[in-house]
Design a protein that fits this description.
363 residues; alpha/beta; Rossmann fold; 12 strands; 18% strand
């Protein structure tokens, strides 16, 4: 039949072309993310949800090799020399772009990060409100009566007895109760932010980006992550998540006040392990506070999986506090100096890596 001859002449591989193109496009997009990761990480995390990828080249028309039919010329197949243009006035090219989301970038970034000094820790008990009411018992409160399980119990009893009618008894009652408390690994993240007058808009924006990716990574590594927020100038106090980036204080800076507050939080945390502390500041600290700040930071590193000190300073060399912390801290501490949004990515790699180079600063 003519229809059979038409089917035999069709190139069925063309039906797979859309899936192949989509897979190739995803691979190219992932390559682009890997090559431009420092720029992308610095752009996202500050309240933005997407970033537009610029077109990599002018799209061009590709002619397919097809049999010559009526009203068609004899042009050769291949890539044309004429780029696709827009339909408006002028010679404006038709641009194509892709809006990358946080998840697109996180899939590539978070695979390159590692928990420093990963070791088995005592698991913290899951809070009661996180437990599912999946356990069924013969005793309990009447509001939690499981009617389906109760009816099943009565039917089983009646079938064993050989009776023809089902009558509920006290022994048939089944009640929903919380599942037994199980131990699951949880973590504590203490976010510490310098809110003194010297912290400008650029410093606060970079700090927001650092905290965003740190939280995102720890949530991926642990089933439960508790986050506590501490701000400081000459004094330190705990705030809510909404207040964390909204607080702005006048006056100087005493980092020891923040470290003392964090030590109190860590020692009172019921989990007792998997503690991560990230302090972001511009490096200004009162000269008379250096010794106490370094000593408290050393104590904090001893009780933490990670004590991270990130100094955001676009123009000045590393501060005295950063230098002293770099030279005196143990293997649980990491330090880095961030000068621009492009330094956020290497700072994250320094904080969360298994590299032997645990401390340092941008030169």
């Amino acid at each position: 039949m003519a229809l059979d001859r038409v089917e035999e002449s069709l190139d069925w591989s063309l039906f797979l072309k859309p899936q192949q193109d989509a897979r190739r496009y995803r691979e190219q997009l992932r390559t682009y993310i890997s090559e431009t990761l420092p720029e992308l990480v610095g752009q996202l995390g500050d309240g933005d949800e997407t970033v537009l990828v610029p077109p990599q080249a002018d799209p061009r028309i590709r002619y397919l090799t097809v049999p010559i039919r009526m009203f068609e010329g004899e042009g050769a197949s291949g890539l044309s020399d004429i780029p696709v243009r827009g339909t408006g006035d002028g010679d404006t090219p038709l641009l194509f772009g892709h809006a990358l989301t946080v998840d697109d970038i996180a899939d590539v970034l978070l695979q390159q990060l590692r928990l420093p000094g990963l070791r088995t820790q005592r698991a913290a008990e899951v809070p009661l409100h996180d437990l599912a009411w999946t356990s069924v018992r013969p005793a309990g409160l009447l509001p939690f009566l499981d009617k389906r399980q109760t009816l099943r119990a009565a039917l089983r009893r009646q079938l064993r007895a050989g009776g023809s009618t089902v009558a509920l008894r006290r022994e048939d009652l089944r009640f929903r109760t919380p599942a037994e408390g199980r131990n699951e690994t949880s973590a504590l993240l203490v976010a510490v932010l310098d809110v003194s007058a010297s912290m400008g808009e650029i410093e606060r924006r970079l700090a927001r980006t650092l905290f965003f990716w740190t939280k995102r990574f720890l949530v991926l590594c642990y089933p439960h992550v508790e986050i506590r927020y501490v701000v400081h100038h000459t004094d330190a106090y705990e705030v809510s998540a909404d207040q964390f980036f909204a607080v702005q204080e006048d006056g100087g800076t005493r980092c020891s006040a923040a470290y003392a507050q964090v030590l109190e939080l860590v020692r009172s945390w019921p989990g007792g392990s998997n503690v991560y502390v990230l302090h972001v500041t511009d490096g200004d600290n009162q000269p008379g506070d250096m010794d106490r700040a370094v000593e408290l930071a050393r104590q904090l590193a001893d009780v933490s999986n990670l004590f991270g000190y990130v100094e955001i300073n676009p123009v000045r060399p590393p501060s005295e506090l950063l230098t002293r912390l770099t030279n005196s801290m143990n293997s649980s501490s990491r330090s880095y100096q961030v000068r621009s949004a492009r330094d956020v990515y290497p700072a994250l790699c320094r904080l969360f890596s298994d590299s032997k180079e645990r401390t340092g600063a941008v030169g």
